[in-house]
Structure formats: structure tokens, C-alpha cells
Design goal:
- The chain is an alpha+beta fold.
- It is 59% helix and 12% strand.
- It contains six helices and four strands; from the N terminus they run αααβαβαββα.
Length: 145
Amino acid sequence: MSLKDKIKSFFEFEEYDETEEPVRQQREQESSNEQEHTSQKQKDNIVSLKSIQQDAKMVLCEPTEYNEAQELADHLKKRQSIVVNLQRLDPQTGRRVVDFLSGTVYALNGNIQKLGQQTFLCTPEHVNISGNISQLFDEEQFNGK
């Protein structure tokens, strides 16, 4: 008997090889089950873009009195973005409408941004606003355009 055979018999490598095969098959079966489970989870997380696009609406509003502020807030509660033009209101009433909308937007975790001198964009939580239009107005006024 050679030294190699003695070491094999001491550690019983031959028996280990025979028991390793069923363990490998079991591991392969478990990994395939995990892959099927993962693919099923991924299928469950799929959301149709059509449903998201149908919910996205932009409402243009031009209130003539403070009482219309409630209707503007109702649009935000329905998760619709609104653009509010306050040119038909006197400055004090316009300020009150903006304050009311600011509170509504804050309560709904939304955003309000000034687009022009008397124009505001109010968005609910799921709409992100990037950029700043007022910077463009300031640059145009600075350059004399």
C-alpha cells in the first residue's frame, strides 16, 4: 500500500465522494427553486406604465376670488398637478391663495414653485420638479433681453 492510499483510507475520501453526489443534487434543486421564487417576485413587482400615465394630469386654473382656492386644493388631493395664474386677483387675495396652496402642498408632501410673476406650479407628492425657471427670468432681465 502506498502512502497515497494510506492517506485516502485514513481520511476516507472514497466514502466522501459517494455521499457528496446526493448533496450536490439537493443543492442544485434548492438553487433552481430559489431562482423560480426570485423570478416570481420580479413578476409581482411589475407595474404597468399605462396606469401611471393615466393618473398624471395637469390642471390649469385662473381663480377670480379666494373661494376658488378650495377647488384648487381638491385637485391636489386627487394627485393632479395644477398651474395657477393669479393675474385676475388683487395682490392681497393672491397672497392668501398662495398661502392656502402652500399649506395644502405641505400637508400632501408636494411641492410649489413660482413659474412667473403671478404664476405658480403646485404638484402632489409623486411629481418631481427639477430646474428653476425664475433663474431664467433673472438672467434675461440682467442681459437686457
